[in-house]
Amino acid sequence: MTPTLLILAAGMGSRYGGLKQLDPMGPHGETIMDYSVRFAWESGFGKVVFVIRRSMEEDFKQHILPRYADKITVAYVFQELDLLPEGFTVNPERKKPYGTAHAILVARDAIHEPFTVINADDFYGRQAFKVMADFLLNSAPTVPPTYSMVGYRLDKTLSRNGTVSRGVCRTNEQGFLTDIVENHKIGYTDKGIENIEEGLYNHFTGDEPVSMNFWGFTPGFFDALQEQFVEFMKANQDNITAEYPIPNVIATLMARDEARVKVLPCDAEWFGVTYKEDRPYVVEKLAQLKI
Fold first, then answer.
1. Is residue 70 packed enough to be buried (19+ CB in 10 Å), middle (13-18) or exposed (0-12)?
2. pLDDT tens track for 223-234
3. Residue at 178 is within a domain
4. For 21, which of 1, 38, 49, 100 is 20 to 30 Å away at the CA?
5. pLDDT tens across 173-211, in order?
6. 3-state secondary structure of 223
7. Torsions phi, psi for 11 (to 5 deg)
């Protein structure tokens, strides 16, 4: 059974100032998603599912989906505020959806095979898709389930235009994730790579593995997502800004011994467009690719 690629494309791109997902950046008008889909089908993925908002549907149908119709099976699902477990209603003051784990959950009926999750506006590199596909295609079922995550070198994920948030991963001797430490202001300083949050001046070598939201799961993950989302909604019904992110779900499962996560080392360069000023660099890097 070939794995599926799930692309989270419903974000607003608030810091960037527009819909990064549909911004042509490649030398022939390619979006970053175009490269992800291409690398996925080259690596053995059989289907791609996009998570979008209803307001983006026409743009996707007209400008994005036709690019892939003759290469890979394509589907899309919607992430909206009203997609909640039975018994819950939307707080009328809430404006944004509930985060990345909620985005995965809305794809439950579209995916019935091992799958990987990525962001639409991040360039992950061909190697990352190959590493993940090999793991998903060759892993036997385990109890508890074994999930996976591509671990990038920190120094290959930074922006020259400002600080970024990075989840720095720690692993055991077998290469399984033990925890992810969120650092919210990592960047270059005159002392090297540091987290410059107030009260924190952590120095990094640059070779630390970090999570760039490139995860691999089995279909049973949807059950865990649903269970935890109910818990999240019970605790946050009146919190109009609370989010339900993937790392929180993973941390809870690991703490309960209900899953483990294999960190897959990757030397590929990651780049994205966190800031508008990142765009020229990304355009230049894509122009240099030989694909």
1. exposed
2. 999 999 999 999
3. no
4. 1
5. 999 999 998 899 999 988 899 998 876 678 899 999 999
6. helix
7. -70, 155
- φ/ψ of 66, rounded to 5, equals -60, -20
| Residue matched to tokens 């120095």 | 203
What domain range is 75 assigned to? 4-150+211-256+269-288
Residue 161 within a domain: no
CA 167 to chain CA mean position, Å: 12
CATH code for the domain in which residue 104 is found: 3.90.550.10
Helix axes 32-43, 126-138, angle to 10 degrees: 40
**Which residues are CB-contacts of 246 (< 8 A; sequence separation ≥ 6)?**
100, 101, 104, 117, 213, 215
Counting the structural domains of the chain, the total is 1
Q: How far is CA 204 from CA 153, 177, 191, in A?
A: 11, 19, 10
